[in-house]
# Entry
Amino acid sequence: MAKSSADKVMDKIVSLAKRRGFIFQSSEIYGGINSCYDYGPLGIELKKNVKELWWKSMVYERRDVEGVDASILMHPKVWEASGHVEGFTDPMIDCKKCKSRFREDKIDTSKPCPVCGNRDTFTEARQFNLMFKTFMGPVEDSANIVYLRPETAQGIFVNFHNVREASRQKLPFGIAQIGKAFRNEITPGNFTFRTREFEQMEMQYFVKPGEDEKWFDYWKQTRMEWYKRLGLNPEKLRFHEHGPDELAHYAKAAFDVEYEFPFGWNEIEGIHNRTDFDLSRHAQFSGKDMRYFDEAAREKYIPYVIETSIGCDRSVLTCLIDAYTEEEERVVLKFAPAIAPIKAAVFPLVKKDGMPEIAHKIVDDLSGDYRVFYDESGSVGRRYRRMDEAGTPFCITVDNETLENNTVTVRERDTMAQSRVAIAQLKNYLEEHLKS
Ligand code: ATP
# Structure
């Protein structure tokens, strides 16, 4: 079958990601393992920057959100209370001819099988639980079953009182967490878009019942604003409101933030009004009082929760796709400076006349503040191209004029404009320009 243009774009991004050390197939030397990926030197920087930007806006820049880092393995009762044991399922169908497996809600079953092209070959749908099971301790017994968490949210709910008491927060306040989640997805795919192991960045905001709709609107707008800081093209972002048959069992209202990927519009973040479902269920299953005492109103109630839940790996992929630009003579990743893996590269024009020494000194001076890269191999033009592909916003070249007046050439990635900057002013220059 001929490849669609979406497939071709994705192929280019996957190949660039591998070649430049953003993302590798996991266990590649053994033939790889389906839907698992490793981040390379540039990928880990990009991912770290995305996480930092999220943490900064969700925790540091606010007074009403605290952080936690809960464990992946939790008491199995947590998943009974949350409804995951009973209901965290997807409808699975198989093609009887080619044995391919699909999520019934993600394909049109009136059309031929997308893999083998045969018609009317699908089995009836069966419900498949997406939680990974394992055993705690040496005995593989049903009494010892534990789950790899399928979402980070529950680690926040069970710590509601711990965090509230320790931080002396009053409603409304939130708890934020970044961490791994695992789902045994029926059809992982589209590179890191849907994988079985992934990271989430979640925040649960606890509010007084009756104020939930106001806060839901607030978080919807606040989260959309954040994508500007991430540097994504606003025209490729939109909200999708969940209809009554899409809503999760716990949700009163839900909006997805969607991005227009080469393979179509898809969710990157979910914003949910989870009502008092989770805390009520934990109260019921644990026997603990999960109510909040509202001093002003002199009453006790179970708070409502507004959740913002974004996939970290999925947003990193979105940044890669959004940044990917083909120009006449180059491929360039136009990352927002805040998330660019390398902020500046330093080149000596030639490997003599003391230029490498000056360039090394510049790298040393800047490295305390930024990830900086030194490169002396090949022509300056080729070095520029390599840095364009890595998404590095600035290239600094030490040349003959440097030897005369201690200035360097600074070349900007997107415009390719060059200017002369005094070495002593480089830190200020970068600080100012990396902000924008
Ligand atoms: P989908 O409909 O795509 O399966 P979901 O609605 O089940 O997603 P949520 O449970 O709301 O997803 O999870 C919140 C976020 O976590 C998603 O918006 C997505 O960014 C990320 N996420 C969920 N499942 C995966 C996965 N299998 N791989 C990568 N990221 C994921």
About this structure: The domain at 41-74+150-322 is CATH 3.30.930.10 (BirA Bifunctional Protein; domain 2). The longest helix spans residues 41-60. The first strand starts at residue 23 and ends at 25. The chain has a mean pLDDT of 95.
